[in-house]
Amino acid sequence: MAWLSPVILGAADGEREFISGFECHLCWLQVGLVYMFNLIVGTGALTMPKAFATAGWLVSLILLVFLGFMSFVTTTFVMEAMAAANAQLRWKRMESHKEEEEDDSSTASDSDVLIQDNYERAERRPILSVQRRGSSNLFEITDRVEMGQMASMFFNKVGVNLFYFCIIVYLYGDLAIYAAAVPFSLMQVTCSTPGNDSCGMEADTKYNDTDLCWGPIRRVDAYRIYLAVFTLLLGPFTFFDVQKTKYLQILTSLMRWIAFAVMIVLALVRIGRGQGEGHPPLADLAGLRNLFGVCVYSFMCQHSLPSLVTPVSSKRHLTRLVFLDYVLILAFYSLLSFTAIFCFRGDSLLDMYTLNFARCDVVGLAAVRFFLGLFPVFTISTNFPIIAVTLRNNWKTLFHREGGTYPWVVDRVVFPTITLLPPVVVAFCTHDLESLVGITGAYAGTGIQYVVPAFLVYHCRKDTELAFGGGTANKHRSPFRHSFWVGFVLLWAFSCFFFVTANIVLSETKL
């Protein structure tokens, strides 16, 4: 997932302000697709090289391509559901406007008769007739309908609650990953080898959490000190609204692409000079579980599609160009991961790939070493408050009742506390980023990327057929329109849940 946090019902004001800043620039579809590329490629890509090295390059490439294809399928599902939701909202507005006009034109003496007659005719008239009256763009995506709103439109109460539960679990995983990544990066950069403080780590050095960092302070203690400082500095933002982050997000995005480009170039240079240390296996099924979760997490964009697609002015060839975007993303992930696994030995690849460049034998320039080593600190720190506020607002939406308000203590203390505390506790217990990303992607990520879009498109098709008639054509209908694809996605999601759970149980049993 990229640096941009999920944009759903109840998202942070700062995040919406950042997205709205781009709306005036998304007049060309190509610009929107560049933004989509930027949205998908993010933190998950930094954990992908180690997952590739653990699972083997061939099985990793096959799984990456397949999961990219599955993500594209569900992306088209979400776009179809967005178009169906827009059609329903547009129809309701047209009917409301028509009733208001008829009310205004009626006389006082016969108004009751006309209203009753108009109501009965509206109930009998097929909704498809609105298209015959000249509305050819009924399914045009012009209103930003977030995933939470679509869930409310197409799901029953149980389905809506399950959707929010899935989103909340995913955001908790995101926060735990971010809360662990920043202290871990700081620990790796600052806990240097004795007598070589400027070089970070050496090529063959392996550290344990119990190794000393500064004097009597162990590495794990340094990690927890950094985690405490991180929580004290960024945690308070959870209790307020995050605003005016647009330019900060643009800066961190620019830094991210500079870091990716530098890492790829440095790895290619080392391989070209014959200094590549990596000899990855073809396949190692033991590493498949984490690879699956990392790949799912790295293709996550479905929850942010409404804010991405809606501002695009021309959507005529949207599906084709989204497919092209996925091909480019696959190529980028493959380039980053393959250069990494052939440049570094598999056992020397770290959970956060940027930290492999904190070695003097890899990067001679100290400024570049520190930039890459501390890169996650700058970028992730700007996203943590946004995701925290988004999660807090989703908790509020889940428990909100029509016409009800929360007491001040619940609104300002309880919700922020239950948002901040669990991920910090998880990060305190472990900094295994590969496992955190893998579990988040394998469970909550699978729900958001596969299960929710499949059920959304299934129910939106039923509602569209019922409301507009069987012959109505959704101009943004997915090319995977056969019901087989919905069933296949759900079957794949169930298989993923079963495989990952069985793999975890078997692994724990062996231990």
TrEMBL record:
Keyword terms: Glycoprotein, Membrane, Transmembrane, Transmembrane helix
Gene label: TMEM104
- Report the protein name in the record: Transmembrane protein 104
Coiled-coil residue spans = none
**Which range is the signal sequence, renumbered to this chain?**
none
User: What topology does the record note for this protein and the membrane?
Assistant: Multi-pass membrane protein
Domain of life (superkingdom): Eukaryota
Q: Which organism is it from?
A: Orycteropus afer afer
- UniProt record similarity statement: Belongs to the TMEM104 family.
Q: Gene Ontology terms, cellular component aspect? A: membrane
Which PANTHER family does the UniProt record give? TRANSMEMBRANE PROTEIN 104, TRANSMEMBRANE PROTEIN 104-RELATED
Q: What stretches pass through the bilayer?
A: none
Protein localization: Membrane
What broad class describes the main subcellular location of this protein?
membrane
